[in-house]
């Protein structure tokens, strides 16, 4: 028992020491020559591992950007000051998956325990960023008596317009696409802000409503005993909820199926992210229900779906076609050994690494033998690049796919495939992910030696098995419908309504039946 107690105390002390060292390093200024070495290191790793580095930017242009960056680094900078200089150059490559990561402030277990007793400061309201302006979309808890529609002009004396402009340089969509940025800024703004300022207990917001400008102090509220207790005592998730990938903390489902008409003629599947969690079972049960209902129409809603598992979209596609298909082309790499550089141990604790180390030789061998060379190019035999048979109860009716600028990565791949095969009508807004593929799959996360910033580099060029458009754009919908993004509270779902009107027209005028 004494040995166990000593071990626990040692782990706690080591953890506190590690947090302190990390936070001290955040304040340390790194010499300019060392930062310039990090710039060179970054570019060398990109050229070594990124399989299509000059897809959207020429080598000459990217060379110039890296050289220009080095010329501007003439004085010492903290790691995150350096982050804000290097990240825009990475973003200029125009690969949505490729984003530099900064060094966040760390907190001790005692501090984390205190945070768990408090509500998030900025998450107490819902916001909408439109261009370079931020508005309060909803304020259910009447925080500071701020009304919906109020504009946030400043946060702690920093102009929101300045912050938005600063943050939008840190990421990009795929290629020339312009629809992704506005969605991602709404998702990521307070992540960037917290990264700069840490977890705050209060903030002063300069607000504007009906031309009246007011300073409002908001504070992080303590959770009630009932709220803390309910978080600890989460209700048991049922088998049906598991299949729909239920999230108890938000009381939401990742996947859902419903019928939009009493006669079950219109099936509607919503997928928020391709998480792969029990996906095969969900689609099996869902399409059994659709087949039993004899639905004539299927609406697949993948708006705001940032992507995820290739395995899941391969399974989903097998229920949407009656033809044998190959979802993606064989992924390309920069070398036969690229796959060996995947993040095998990253994110694991010291203890879990000990157990998984036994499988590492098999991981290396498997990746090496799944790699091949053909005509001076290197490929990886990913299973979704092999022919797949359709399911026996695959849907045979008319399919509509709803997309928007936040349909990214895997969402764009399945949309591009369905559109190319003329198997579905794509409705909505140009997807944020490219029509012709992306660089992702698995990453090699490199750590810059001096600043310790990290950069996950996608190792595989993943492209849908289609004829490429070579336009550098997202999936262009067959029917463009304005998503009404500029409205704080849209009164209707224009995309879904267009589909329902089209179905009604087909049934009444064209005489289509289920």
From TrEMBL:
Transmembrane segments: 350-370
Pfam families per the UniProt record, alphabetical: Peptidase_S41
Lineage: superkingdom: Bacteria
Domain annotation Tail specific protease: ranges: 236-482
GO biological process entries: proteolysis
InterPro entries reported for this sequence: ClpP/crotonase-like_dom_sf, Tail-specific_protease
GO molecular function: endopeptidase activity; serine-type peptidase activity
Keywords, in A-Z order: Membrane, Transmembrane, Transmembrane helix
Protein name: Peptidase family S41
Natural source organism: Epilithonimonas mollis
Lineage: Bacteria, Pseudomonadati, Bacteroidota, Flavobacteriia, Flavobacteriales
